């Protein structure tokens, strides 16, 4: 019955490439050159409809996963308007192995994750982030003076990554020691390098290094969480709260939170969620910042308007 049903609904045009590796190597070649869109555009042009219309969807196979790529704004709308209805978010097995590492946890959304999301959400909304504007401003100014001032050339994307990570560690963990930051970022770089690597878990491979980096990064963050819990428990309650009733950084505030049933949030759970936020923002935020700066450089009139605050 399943085969008959699939036969009535043909798959979109495209190719899954070579056995096992699919079209991964071709995609990685364009990604390493910084132009992964060439891989997509080539297939969009290749799989034009018989009526000459642009390709709306094509199939491929990347990183051991068969997949369909939606190419239009309508495709994006379909995905985001039907989450948990017709489609469900998921992680390829190799990413699950990198991010989860050797722990027994999974990347599936669980009741525990939903409970924690309700607690974390207020801190990530504009109203919650407003109290951190002063810290963001001081970290940004310090970073620009250290890495950007008096430089003939600046590699924006590379520095944007470091800036985003530095700011995240300050806001979430209240960590600003350069040696600690360098150690944590080194582990994060190892982790993120495995996202587009061939999923071969053998000593010396990029994928294996990513798994080890993920495990060590989570352990380091949990150490920071445990140390902060001890510090909070030994300090007087009033000494850890500012005049606005705030506990300072996000970590200290989360350690004082409880679930609706009064259950205390464990150190490992807080570490896992902060780890997830830091990992998710490392590439995404830096790419957005680099893109904004690129367009400001390409369009002087827009740059002048932004500079004037218009």
Write up what this structure looks like.
With 310 residues, the chain is mainly alpha-helical. It has 2 domains: 2-89, no CATH class; 99-308, Cytochrome P450 (Cytochrome p450, Orthogonal Bundle). The protein is 60% helix and 4% strand. The protein has helices at 2-7, 24-32, 37-46, 73-81, 93-100, 111-124, 126-129, 133-147, 156-173, 178-193, 206-234, 250-255, 267-298, 300-308; strands spanning 57-62, 65-70. Strands 1-2 form a two-stranded antiparallel ribbon. A hairpin with a 2-residue loop joins strand 1 (57-62) and strand 2 (65-70). Helix 5 (93-100) packs parallel to helix 11, helix 8 (133-147) packs antiparallel against helix 9 and helix 9 packs antiparallel against helix 13 (267-298). The model has no long low-confidence stretch (mean pLDDT 83).
Key terms:
2 domains, globular, single chain, mainly alpha, two-stranded antiparallel ribbon, Cytochrome p450, 310 residues, 4% strand
CATH homologous superfamily of the largest domain?
Cytochrome P450
Give the count of structural domains. Answer: 2
Query: Structural class, judged by helices and strands?
Result: mainly alpha
Q: CATH topology of the largest domain, which one?
A: Cytochrome p450
Residue-averaged pLDDT: 83
CATH architecture of the largest domain: Orthogonal Bundle
Strand content: under 5%
Radius of gyration: 23 Å
CATH class designation of the largest domain: Mainly Alpha
How far is the N terminus from the C terminus?
61 Å
Alpha plus pi helix count: 14
Helix content: 55-70%
Poorly predicted runs of 5 or more residues: none
Strand order of the largest sheet: 1-2
Family: Belongs to the cytochrome P450 family.
Organism: Malus domestica
Pfam family, one: p450
InterPro entries: Cyt_P450 (IPR001128), Cyt_P450_sf (IPR036396)
